[in-house]
């Protein structure tokens, strides 16, 4: 497969949206990341008494039916204006992951400035690829309880709409009149990394001129936290939630489960330039691979992850030395961080002394299906603002990481020029996604 830049059709990022534990917009989330503020706290969505893990990254103070700052007109001046992403009736109809994803997608669309140019963009040329890892788990749990208590007649007629992963992409398509490719990727914690890469490929091969892409997840539920806790995958620092997620730290004890959504507007470069769009960065390369090693652990040395990174660099037609920042998957698990760090040190051996690496899950926790897009957001805004967000809670660097000689940006953001950045996302099943972004 040819690299993205060799094609006449290059892909740039013109819009950003986010609803995360660190903020209910892309700007608020970025502000928290740069400040090193954690969004993790005690679970409030249910009683976690008796569970070894009682902390999570919850989205707080979020109203899915809040009015938009300004009405949008995705169907043109003659069409019905969009005054809010979801009505109160819609909120009842959809699952929480759709609430979060729609809000982020509408923010990204508004941020792109495309609304003022819809007359020149055929709706068939705009598509959607929004990934979800686990779908409507809160609604599954609640509806099961309802059925057990009241029988079949108590099951909501909206239940399937609440839980089906692709309904997020479908609702965004409906709201924004996007009639091009419409799909939902599900590849565990690499989900939204793959969604971004596949959306970019749709533009380069000419299937669309604009793609709304990213991911969403909302699984802060008894079954999800309980199951991950039983796997001994979660941190049990219940007495200090904001310090629980600590990638690369010697004393890390597992990841922190979080919810949220991050969405991008990807656009064909020449179209974006013609309309005078603000361009955050260019998506230059995408690599996808499989470990074929273990269902829930990285391969030794993260061999599959290293292949994904090399593939993304090759498709970007870039040498490792041209990359200044890696937004790492870095979940804060005892095994995974060291394996990924080994792969990064191997791939970037020629410039690792000058390379910045960081793990923003130290602040956001692990957004599962939205994690890849969250890491990509850090990479894109590092390029745009010339700031590398930190890895917080790094008090005692893991000796394995120390021996590798990587600069994992401990505790404080660093202002530096970032010409290009790579973001990683890896998932259960041995699936890997790497993305390369560069100044446009």
Walk me through this protein's architecture.
It is a single chain. The chain is of the alpha/beta class and 440 residues long. The chain folds into 2 domains: 11-274, Thiolase/Chalcone synthase (Peroxisomal Thiolase, Chain A, domain 1); 285-438, Peroxisomal Thiolase, Chain A, domain 1 (3-Layer(aba) Sandwich), CATH 3.40.47.10. Helices cover 32% and strands 19% of the residues. The strands form 4 sheets. A 10-stranded mixed β-sheet has the order 7-6-8-9-1-10-16-15-11-12, with helices on both faces. A two-stranded antiparallel ribbon has the order 2-3. The protein is globular and about 60 Å long. The chain starts with 10 loop residues before the first strand and ends with a strand.
What descriptive keywords fit this protein?
16 strands, disordered N terminus, ten-stranded mixed sheet, single chain, 440 residues, alpha/beta, Peroxisomal Thiolase, Chain A, domain 1
Radius of gyration: 20 Å
The CATH class of the largest domain, by name, is Alpha Beta
Q: Which secondary-structure class do the elements indicate?
A: alpha/beta
Strand content: 15-25%
Q: Describe the largest sheet.
A: 10 strands, mixed
- Unreliable stretches (pLDDT < 50, length at least 5) are 1-6
Which architecture of the largest domain per CATH?
3-Layer(aba) Sandwich
Number of strands: 16
Q: What's the structural domain tally?
A: 2
Task: Determine the CATH superfamily of the largest domain.
Answer: Thiolase/Chalcone synthase
CATH topology of the largest domain: Peroxisomal Thiolase, Chain A, domain 1
User: Going across the major beta sheet, what is the strand order?
Assistant: 7-6-8-9-1-10-16-15-11-12
- Count of alpha and pi helical runs: 14
Q: Shape from CA axes?
A: globular
Helix residue percentage = 25-40%
End-to-end gap: 22 Å
Element order: H for helix, E for strand: EHEEEEHHEHHHEHEHEHEHEHEHHEHEEE
Q: Would you tell me the overall average pLDDT?
A: 95
